[in-house]
Specification:
Number of helices: 21
Number of domains: 4
Helix content: 40-55%
Largest sheet: 4 strands, mixed
Shape: globular
Number of strands: 10
Structural class: alpha+beta
Length: about 500
């Protein structure tokens, strides 16, 4: 039977958000920790002769700012994403580029916070990502997944929920299958086991890595047995039901003993082996913020960037442009080209200055919002006082985009009276009781860990008993929730804690 085929052309209207070069520059600078910002500024000073160190003259700043404001306003089209770049273009709203930190000299700052060549966990994985041949879209997904790993290097969120996050908060479309492919990239990183979604997958990834590293024609019987145990007898393995494993796999006690001993050498927390930072010498972290709590409870903070120079447009360039402008009518072709070069360099220099100031303004606004939301912790230093807080809470208080808050919190650290913490430390989900009272998950986990630490190891608490104990302490949590938090704390079941 003959079939008729027709091509039908349709039109569809789709709104696509694109970022201007200036917005892209702001985003890139926003993601940099303070040490990397210093390197980026130094590189820009060497690259652009229109940029130099020093405080801007007020009249120069206003003239260039008027032009820049017009350009940015046209490019943004009223979009408020990435902090609405026009927000800070009011002279009264511009904070000093270089903060004077409580009358403390730069030398004092440098002495108190030693710099090191350490590399963060996040940066280490990004470096490994840079060695892979990925498309821009795959790179975006892989980088987002890296930022979603917990301190153990495991991925606790489902790919479906991450797909929703990317679409809602970042405007990036990604199917769970595409995320699965990006996750496989991470699971090939070192140390082996990163990117696993549970302990079983973590162990299997490590066994696979060991298998790949075996020399050709090497005996892999032990690895194949270990893989079979984790793949087919995982529940029996976690419960130490050795006889059931022997029966199920048809192996001897000696073979099982050898496999179990080797399996116990695997790392259930691959991310922890990197720590928050890995360096050649001491593991030192350079905080991006310094928060100080006075005896009267006043909480003050400042940005920690003592080695980042102030920036301004070169006076020589400004004078040359002014001279060319006066003689515009009689300019030769060469003079017009020189004028164009000078103007391009000056525009690029002013754009960079504005981006650095925008970065500072955004960091200040974000940190102030976090302090306001977590003030009891900054006053007392007690982790149990941390309230449930997610990116949306900070974004609403700071009046910034959620993606901006995510970028700020992903790679920044804060020094407090009680120690140095990653900004991620202050974020946690909440648990709502029946009466509507909200509790921090971190607080519940802390109490749970204290109960396990103080138990009689000859007769450890079961999950049912832990549920009753926490309920008596004012935490009416379901038994399955207790089990979930226990697993996240890497606390084994009662019979394995004897």
């Amino acid at each position: 039977m003959a079939q008729n085929f027709r091509q039908i052309q349709t039109q569809a209207q789709q709104q696509v958000q694109t970022l201007s070069p200036q917005q892209i520059l702001v985003v890139k600078l926003l993601e940099l920790p303070s040490v990397e910002l210093e390197d980026r500024v130094r590189a820009e000073l060497l690259e652009n002769p229109a940029l130099e160190e020093g405080r801007e003259d007020s009249h120069e700043e206003e003239d260039v700012r008027t032009t820049e404001e017009s350009t940015i306003s046209e490019e943004d089209g009223g979009n408020t994403d990435y902090d609405s770049l026009s927000d800070y273009l009011n002279e009264d709203d511009i904070p000093d580029y270089k903060l004077q930190e409580n009358n403390r000299s730069r030398d004092e700052q440098a002495e108190e916070i030693p710099f090191s060549d350490s590399t963060s966990f996040y940066e280490t994985l990004k470096e490994q990502m840079g060695e892979r041949n990925l498309t821009p879209h795959q790179r975006e997904l892989t980088e987002y997944l890296i930022g979603s790993l917990d301190d153990d290097g495991l991925l606790r969120k489902s790919l479906d929920s991450i797909s929703d996050e990317l679409a809602i908060y970042s405007g990036i479309q990604a199917t769970p299958q595409q995320l699965e492919e990006a996750l496989k990239v991470i699971q090939d990183f070192e140390p082996a086991g990163l990117g696993a979604r549970n302990l079983r997958e973590c162990l299997l990834i490590q066994l696979h890595h060991k298998q790949e590293q075996l020399p050709a024609k090497a005996d892999d019987s032990l690895l194949r047995l270990e893989t079979a145990i984790i793949s087919n007898c995982y529940e029996e393995f976690t419960r130490k039901h050795w006889d059931k494993i022997q029966q199920k796999l048809g192996i001897s006690e000696e073979e099982l003993d050898r496999a179990v001993k080797d399996l116990c050498k695997l790392n259930p927390r691959p991310g922890a082996s990197l720590g928050e930072a890995v360096g050649k010498n001491m593991q030192q972290i350079i905080p991006d913020f310094i928060v100080e709590t006075e005896d009267n409870g006043t909480v003050n903070f400042s940005l920690n960037n003592p080695n980042v120079p102030e920036l301004r447009i070169s006076r020589d360039f400004s004078e040359m442009v002014e001279e060319h402008t006066k003689n515009k009518a009689n300019q030769s072709k060469e003079s017009k080209e020189a004028m164009l070069f000078l103007k391009q360099k000056m525009d690029a220099a002013q754009g960079f200055i504005d981006a650095v100031k925008q970065r500072q303004n955004t960091l200040q606004t974000t940190m102030q919002a976090i302090i306001d939301l977590q003030r009891p912790f900054f006053e007392e230093g007690d982790e149990s006082l941390l309230r449930p807080m997610v990116l949306k809470d900070v974004a609403e208080r700071a009046k910034l985009d959620i993606s901006t808050i995510s970028r700020v919190s992903n790679s920044k650290y804060v020094q407090t009276n009680y120690g140095i913490y990653p900004l991620k430390f202050f974020f946690s989900d909440g648990y709502t009781k029946g009466d509507g009272e909200e509790m921090s998950v971190r607080e519940i986990k802390k109490v749970l860990k204290e109960c396990v630490d103080s138990e009689d190891k000859k007769s450890p608490y079961t999950d049912d008993e832990l549920t009753e104990i926490l309920a008596a302490k004012g935490y009416p949590i379901a038994r399955r929730t207790i089990a979930k938090y226990r697993q996240q704390l890497n606390i084994p079941v009662a019979r394995l804690r004897k």
